[in-house]
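User: Let's play a game. I give you a shape written as tokens, and you guess the letters that built it. Ready? Here's round one.
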């Protein structure tokens, strides 16, 4: 029987406790204000997040998925169009494409778990209208190369930055390269809200204006509906709490850097493949993802020692039941499928202390 206290794969309570007084003060202020949707807090957060990222405009939304599907809708991408997308991404990325009736064209990842830019051009056809770049696990994709390809073929670029708040490529924040940068503020994200929330950033004023219309039932003026829109408004409470966390985001990301550097330096086990960092990019370590050919055995071993872990992600989109209609089969994307069978996210969260030493010690004693 293992008597050690459990180390969870993720904890959000410790991050809350660190700035509890600020969160509580902000929440009470908003509740007392009597204004709860599209008010001063949303406006302030949009301005502050745009400044942090280095973009001209930010539009708060209800979720990261809304950011994605609205991005393709507003860019005019739909039935008959194709969008290049990494095959190993989270399925929400793909849903942003298919909700609009467009077809995802999957491209295998590189060793850094992001889209292999050398494989993109061979997948472009006369129907290709956009590239969806996903900054998976917090590490920037190779955006300079992606933008060169997009400019060569006159393609739109949408960035899925759901896991990469503050990540950079060549010193430039992710989300600012393409036409639209899409963010999720789901509670587990580096910049996490206390419920569902999302946003887009853009340097195009007309795109920002369209998002503001679409998010509010397609209405620019109350009861005057310009298009069939959505109910996708970032509420005042989430915006205010995000403002509190945004003020500390650099410190929070730095804490993750320290934790992950320790993992990289101290996990020494030939049965475990550590993550690699791409050149000229930064990662904000949304997840610390290792690989193991004996993953099932490793998970059971960790559980025996009261240590949690998560698989991000066990089923690639092309093999999911939701996308059976695309006609893919096992073996169509061998690198993606290999990763899906081997990746495992280790415990990583704000306020992680001595628990990390135990995780490292246990991992180093694993026999594959």
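Assistant: Ready! My guess for every position:
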């Amino acid at each position: 029987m293992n008597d050690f206290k459990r180390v969870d794969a993720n904890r959000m309570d410790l991050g809350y406790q660190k700035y509890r007084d600020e969160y509580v003060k902000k929440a009470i202020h908003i509740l007392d204000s009597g204004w709860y949707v599209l008010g001063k807090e949303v406006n302030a957060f949009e301005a502050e997040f745009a400044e942090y990222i280095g973009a001209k405009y930010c539009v708060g939304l209800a979720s990261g998925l809304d950011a994605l599907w609205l991005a393709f809708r507003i860019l005019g991408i739909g039935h008959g169009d194709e969008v290049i997308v990494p095959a190993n991404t989270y399925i929400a990325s793909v849903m942003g494409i298919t909700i609009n009736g467009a077809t995802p064209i999957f491209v295998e990842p590189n060793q850094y778990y992001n889209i292999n830019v050398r494989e993109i051009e061979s997948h472009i056809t006369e129907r290709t209208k956009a590239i969806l770049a996903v900054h998976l696990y917090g590490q920037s994709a190779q955006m300079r190369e992606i933008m060169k390809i997009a400019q060569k073929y006159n393609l739109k670029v949408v960035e899925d930055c759901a896991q990469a708040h503050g990540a950079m490529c060549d010193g430039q924040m992710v989300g600012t390269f393409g036409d639209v940068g899409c963010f999720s503020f789901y509670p587990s994200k580096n910049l996490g809200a206390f419920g569902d929330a999302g946003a887009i950033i853009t340097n195009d004023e007309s795109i920002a204006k369209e998002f503001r219309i679409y998010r509010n039932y397609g209405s620019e003026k109350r009861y005057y509906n310009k298009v069939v829109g959505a109910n996708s408004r970032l509420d005042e409470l989430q915006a205010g709490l995000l403002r509190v966390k945004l003020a500390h985001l650099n410190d929070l990301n730095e804490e993750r850097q320290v934790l992950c550097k320790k993992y990289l330096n101290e996990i020494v086990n030939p049965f475990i493949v550590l993550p690699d960092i791409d050149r000229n990019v930064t990662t904000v370590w949304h997840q610390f993802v290792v690989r193991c050919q004996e993953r099932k055995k490793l998970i059971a071993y960790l559980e025996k020692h009261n240590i949690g872990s998560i698989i991000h992600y066990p089923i690639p989109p092309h093999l999911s039941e939701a996308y059976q209609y695309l006609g893919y089969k096992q073996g169509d994307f061998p690198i993606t499928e290999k990763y899906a069978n081997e990746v495992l996210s280790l415990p990583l969260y704000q306020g992680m202390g001595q628990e990390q030493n135990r995780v490292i010690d246990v991992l180093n004693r694993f026999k594959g």
